[in-house]
Amino acid sequence: IDISDVPGGSVAALFNEEAGAVLQVPAEAVDGVLSQAAAAGLTLYELGSAQPGDAITVERGGDVLLRSTCSALQRAWAETSSRLQALRDNPDCAREEFETITADAPGLSASLTFAPDEDVAAPFIATGVRPRVAVLREQGVNGHVEMAAAFDRAGFSAVDVHMSELAAGSVSLADFKGLVACGGFSYGDVLGAGEGWAKSILFNPALRDAFATFFERRDTIALGVCNGCQMMSNLRELIPGAEYWPHFVRNRSEQFEARLSLVRIESSPSVFLQGMAGSHLPVVVAHGEGRAEFASGQRLAAAEASGCISLRFLDNALHVTERYPANPNGSPGGITGLCNEDGRVTIMMPHPERVFRTVQCSWAPDDWGEDGGWMRLFRNARRWLA
pTM of this prediction? Predict the structure, then answer.
């Protein structure tokens, strides 16, 4: 960085309270950006150029004002926040996050075993048949619109269904091929997020029978995401082949986590994830109670042996991890998604419906088109119900 062209002395050039912005543009675009700024009455100054590596040098008139590295400056900037975080939250998580600031941090990546723009549901959409999927809502659920949009794009008829309608009998699960429990803050999280939602079913004989009958039908599928994942995990006694599922409890960080995290799709019977095993890609997480808690080490071993673990958190070096923040909740073995034994019911803490379009992603590979990698999950569901 060379601030020679910036008016004033070094202090005035580096530190001021004027509104401004720093733009980074390709070298071949500099002249065009400068001319457009001038035409708009804006004054821009060329500050420097990006160089390979971690080094940063600030000069003025040939004098070196600062020579450091990106990682050293970032650590200096973040240290105060990290110390406050250690007092407020889990201190181990604060330390682990601070330790991720290194010169060789690889950043996010994606590698798919399938083409994101391949529409495996297209032949079935062409028939004009649109299976009905119940997009379940309860007090505080807020992810239903994105979820309905994703299922609609995949060829379903997404129907907004509130739990009060099921309880009153004005809507019946018998009329649906699929159901999805969405994310949010059911009952304001005061009853343990999705646990209160599950109890409203388990302790209501009519609802309990309706959900049990739905899960036992061999022509149905179900998806539970985030709050809905926690809810559905507490219904495991009603779901054939789900007896090894964990509870989902408070994050190890002791805070609500909203991040773009990296996950690997495991080989499993999940009908939603067929043809996706071995892929890794970013996905949104937004939860306060996402840590998978197994009743015992034996139950965890049984879940591992079942072949039904569907998703795991990875660090940016592509290793399964329990370290924060790559694993935002501290689940053992990075576990963040499971299915039942026949694959018809899948639960996951991340939000695939929030990134089914590439434009929804804060980062995505340059070669992705309209459809993000997670659109395949919804199309798989439509194909299975063909």
Answer: 0.90
